[in-house]
Design goal:
The protein is an alpha+beta fold. Helices cover about 35% and strands about 20% of the residues. It contains 24 helices and 36 strands. The strands form 9 sheets. It has a 7-stranded mixed β-sheet. The protein has a 6-stranded mixed β-sheet with strand order 19-25-20-24-21-27, with helices on one face. Helix 11 (about 275-295) crosses helix 12 (about 345-365) and helix 17 packs antiparallel against helix 18. The N and C termini lie far apart (about 65 Å).
Length: about 850
């Protein structure tokens, strides 16, 4: 009987593919302009028959723009793989004539000083339909073909009214590189006789899969950090238009149905107004009605939250818009079995197209309410600021202009007003000086965004989070910062920083020097050193303080002794010019090796820097996210060659090519006993492993490192709990993302260049190290009150207190540096990048007496 049922379901899948055409998707009774090409007429197949590639998608959107006076196409950015990010702007011909006036009037709704005079009675609503930020959640991007055709070619009073009262922005692919990677996979493995067996290769993407962008980042977490060109371009467009509604079309597990927000009420971000939730609920009635009409199953008030403001469906909520998340059960190919039968790709596309239409309908039905909400959202900012005891935030680093500059860029891209500090401020023992510090007042239209980026929060309405529970940016950048309350006055505000700029480094002294020195504080100091090392220039670094007549040089200062390599002087000084221009660090010309204080330049305490030859383990169970973060750091920031080495190759004889191995979080079961022995031999011979989280445990269990971990077990054998509390109780023990404070031994090589003896660390796991038996092996230790911001259970917080944040192990001539936490999280933890880079360049020379 089961076989017969399977055959019937399979037959149904074949039928749905054989009969798929536009009539399967489009509203009944609608007529379409024959002069506007259908998708099949341009790309050769109906949506759902094959997965559209990004080039085909853009080709069709360009065709639509060329054939319909309702449509224009605009490119706003390029991906790392040089694919265009495009949008269609669709509205009536009359609106297109005055499109710039409509846009500029609409944006004024976010300006409390001018919005009061605007008449929203006849103002068009702006609706942004966004698809497939995860490339392997492709039904959204494929649905955009239908949405574009429907709006460009549809005829009749209903669509005329829609386009007269709305400007519709279609963003057909949030993630072109991931979409193309996925479509190539599923199309190249598609059988002409569709096989919905979940075990088929079509449904089992090769690592890293198509979810992510070129560097394997989840772009749906990057709306706030803006680490990538896709996000930076999109945020610029967002603020150019300030849409009233933004949709974010996703997919979820195959065995699900369809989800639309509002989601779980208790898990919204606290600065999201209740009116936003009310409007989302009004939209939900339209989604339900439209999905009922086509017989689709769905749910709405479960599973998903609206807390992290760096997601596509939540960022709009904190910017006067309404973001809406849609999640469709994924066929992850062309058809897959699920508990309801066989889920075909056309079914998934139809649900996303249908909720695109329901979004438009709800926006038109409540047009004025959405527009008025946007105006009120920003008008409330001044009142909220007046009620807030915090009046401003001040931040800055005197020693590293790069981290200042990078945070300034993020703030201004989010339309946050930030000012040069005009006069010095001292608070909590930290002094902030003009020229290296900045002020962000809360009394501004982006009050809620300022709060969202700068505040710390340790109290929550719910203990369950879909993503991180905190993201305080100045902590991530490891910048001194503080809130200003009564200390704030308008006299602290200097010039507004509208376009952040960073000055080149300076040569302190004259060329022709005895030696040159680069202090270790600058973010790109190691990039500067690497330029020299790649050209076989001898570079030392100091392990003791060195002082000249005019300057003091801390531990970790990089010294380029020219006297012992005179034949390279011209090349060295040419490279120094480039370092000043591109690496933004000062270079000091030294006229003598004799110290005024501390050790001389020829001291035996100094070490010779080694050019890192780096392999980053990938594939075979490694987290693509965390491997991608390392790859991005090396490739985009340090400009260093790096080998992405499949884990299984550790079992062979390839390790001798490298002197550093980075093992991101993941499962190392692909390494056999021979691979373990290869690693041991490689470390004994002088190699350095840098790792964190689960691989740290694996190295310990494999007797490669000597790190010990807390078991985390608690004695609850006599406790009984109700079944209904299972998910909530287990979820409450998850540390999804919180920020903790560690104390730092500033004399240790891993801490060279840090400005303070405290550093914020990001943690999204529950592994806890035990204190080493060697008292010198834990140079970073969580403080006794470590929680700075975010959610952690009381049980896990107790385990973290006073535990090591890093352990250094020795094996022969090599070192294993094991962090508890990922130092490169999502490419915006600029502060802990420093720990990683110190481990990379200085880890080899850590004394064997300071290793476990």
């Amino acid at each position: 009987m089961r076989i017969i049922l399977y055959q019937l379901l399979l037959f149904h899948a074949f039928i749905s593919f054989a009969q798929v055409d536009l009539s399967y998707y489009l509203p009944k009774g609608m007529t379409y302009n024959p002069e506007v090409s259908t998708p099949k007429e341009v790309i050769g197949f109906h949506p759902g028959e094959w997965h559209v590639g990004h080039d085909q998608l853009v080709y069709y959107m360009r065709s639509i723009a060329n054939s319909s006076s309702r449509v224009i196409m605009e490119e706003f950015a390029r991906t790392y793989e040089n694919r265009p990010l495009v949008q269609l702007i669709i509205t009536s011909e009359a609106n297109h004539v005055q499109l710039e006036e409509i846009r500029s009037q609409h944006v004024l709704l976010s300006d409390p000083a001018r919005s009061g005079s605007l008449n929203t009675e006849s103002m068009p609503i702006v609706i942004w339909l966004g698809y497939s930020v995860h490339g392997n959640e492709a039904s959204g991007a494929n649905a955009s073909l239908l949405t574009a055709y429907h709006l460009a070619a549809g005829q009749g009073a209903e669509i005329d009214e829609l386009l007269e009262n709305a400007v519709v922005i279609i963003d057909p692919s949030f993630n072109p590189d991931g979409l193309n990677r996925f479509s190539s996979w599923v199309n190249s493995h598609r059988s002409h006789v569709i096989n919905p067996d979940p075990n088929d290769r079509e449904y089992d993407e090769a690592w890293p899969g198509g979810r992510t962008n070129h560097y394997w980042f989840d772009l749906n977490r990057d709306w706030l950090p803006l680490a990538h060109p896709e996000s930076r371009g999109r945020i610029q467009r967002f603020h150019d238009w300030k849409p009233n509604i933004l949709t974010d079309h996703h997919e979820m597990g195959t065995n699900s149905t369809f989800f639309f927000q509002p989601g779980i009420p208790s898990r919204k971000y606290p600065w999201t107004p209740e009116k936003n939730v009310e409007l989302t609920q009004k939209m939900a009635t339209f989604h339900a009605k439209y999905l009922d009409e086509i017989g689709s199953l769905y749910y709405s008030r479960e599973s998903y939250d609206d807390f992290y403001i760096g997601k596509g469906s939540t960022y709009p909520d904190i910017n006067g818009s309404v973001g809406v998340l849609f999640e469709q059960a994924s066929s992850r190919g062309h058809a897959q079995e699920n508990p309801f039968g066989i889920l075909t790709f056309p079914m998934a596309i139809r649900n996303h197209f249908t909720t695109s239409l329901s979004t438009l309908a709800s926006g038109i039905a409540h047009r004025k309410e959405f527009l008025d909400f946007q105006r009120e959202f920003y008008a409330e900012s001044s009142e909220l600021a007046s009620q807030d005891r915090v009046k401003a935030y001040v931040f800055g680093s005197e020693k590293d202009p790069v981290r200042n500059y990078e945070l300034l860029k993020v703030l201004t891209q989010h339309q946050i007003r930030v000012y040069d500090l005009k006069s010095s401020v001292t608070k909590n023992g930290k002094q902030y000086q003009p020229g290296s510090a900045y002020v962000v007042p809360l009394n501004q239209p982006q009050y809620r965004m300022v709060r969202g980026i700068f505040e710390t929060r340790t109290s929550f309405n719910d203990s369950l989070f879909y993503d991180v529970s905190t993201w305080t940016f100045p902590l991530a950048y490891n910048l001194n910062y503080t809130s200003l309350e009564k200390e704030f006055n308008a006299g602290l505000l200097g010039e507004e920083v509208k376009e952040p700029r960073i000055a080149s480094g300076k040569l302190i002294g004259q060329k022709g020097a005895y030696a040159y020195a680069i202090k270790p504080h600058g973010y790109y100091a190691f990039r500067a050193a690497n330029r020299l090392l790649e050209q076989d220039v001898v570079v030392l670094y100091t392990n003791e303080v060195h002082s000249s007549d005019t300057h003091s040089f801390p531990r970790g200062t990089m010294i380029i002794p020219v006297g012992i390599q005179q034949e390279k002087r011209a090349a060295i000084e040419s490279m120094i010019d480039r370092i000043l221009e591109e690496d933004m660090v000062d270079v000091f010309a030294l006229t003598t090796g004799l110290a005024k204080g501390g050790v001389d330049l020829g001291s035996r305490s100094h070490a010779i820097m080694e050019l890192p030859k780096v392999a980053v383990l990938v594939e075979d169970g490694i987290s693509a996210y965390e491997a991608g973060e390392v790859w991005h750091l090396f490739d985009q920031r340090l400009k260093m060659k790096v080998t992405l080495l499949p884990v299984s190759k550790v079992n062979g004889r390839v390790l001798a090519r490298y002197n550093r191995i980075v093992i991101p979080n993941g499962n190392l079961s692909a390494i056999r006993e021979s691979g373990k022995e290869n690693l041991k031999t490689w470390v004994r011979d002088g190699g350095v492993i840098i790792t964190w989280k689960n691989p740290g445990q694996w190295l310990s269990l494999g007797t490669i490192s000597n790190v010990k971990y807390d078991s985390g077990s608690t004695d609850e054998k006599d406790k009984y709990k109700p079944y209904e509390d299972l998910d909530e109780n287990r979820g409450a023990q998850v540390t999804g993302g919180a920020i903790f404070e560690a104390k730092v031994d500033l004399s240790h090589p891993l801490a060279y260049g840090l400005e303070n003896d405290r550093i914020p660390l990001f943690r999204n796991h529950n592994l806890v190290m035990q204190k080493s038996s060697n008292e010198y092996a834990n140079p970073l230790v969580y403080t006794s009150e470590p929680l700075l911001s975010g959610y952690v259970s009381e049980e896990n917080l107790a385990r973290i207190k006073n535990s090591p944040a890093v352990t250094v192990s020795t094996l022969g001539s090599g070192r294993i540096i094991t962090f508890t936490d990922n130092p490169n999280f999502r490419a915006y933890w600029w502060g802990t990048n420093k720990l990683f880079m110190n481990a990379l360049y200085y880890g080899k020379d850590i004394s064997s007496g300071a290793g476990e």
